[in-house]
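Hi there. Long-time user, first ticket. I'm pasting a complex I've been working with (about 240 residues overall). I'd like to know whether the download I got is complete or cut off, because the file seemed smaller than I expected. Thanks.
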Amino acid sequence: MSAVLAWVPFLQPMTVLGNGWWLLMVPLVFGVAVVHRAIQDPSMDGYWRRVLRLTVKANAVLGSLALAIYLFVYFVIPLLRAD
Amino acid sequence: MTQQSDSVDGPLNWFPALMGWVLPGLGQVLLGHRQRGFRAMGGILGMFLAGVLVGGVDCVDRREDALWFYAQAGAGPVAFAADWANSALLKTGKVGRLIPSPPPNPRLPPPQITSFKTVTMSNEIGTLFCFTAGLMNIVVILDALRRQPANPKGWSA
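Hi, the file is complete. Here it is re-exported in full:
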């Protein structure tokens, strides 16, 4: 709580994120989707639905890659023989 | 390619593209694509401000992180404003305080760094947000350069 009160927005980095920093992947991908759909779609009908769909898809792919790398590093590499 | 696009071969829209650097999405607005322009503007400025909010103004630094800044500058004057705020507020000690850090060369005096400078993950993520905003605006500028005006007579300022 004291860390939140001591934080000066826009001048100091956010300290409250802790180990949850990776969740910022969601708003980052959302921002990219908003811009990408704004210039790429032939029509603006159903724009937000397509933005949401792209956000979910991209996050799912990134999350799957992260899971695959986690499994490789923590489960596959320890099985490799060093000698 | 089944999707139709209103980007066609034709004269390049240099002025709207330049305005798209001054304010992200303004190029599309000048070309008559107001919804596209304002949505792109919201996305780019939102990402940039989110980056500065998460990482602090220190995540935009023209001198110390020049390679990151080249892409961040794609977001327009807002990147230079953030760099100016970093230089004028943090690096002068007007906000926070300056503390000596180990000198890279022992014969030189120790450089002073702001107490607000960190090497946290938040700072790196903030840098990444601003970097992505800059790159996305370059894509939007290129789109404004090639996009056909909504009004057949051309774009209007």
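A couple of notes from our side: Chain A has three helices and no strands. Chain A touches chain B through 24 residues (CB under 8 Å).
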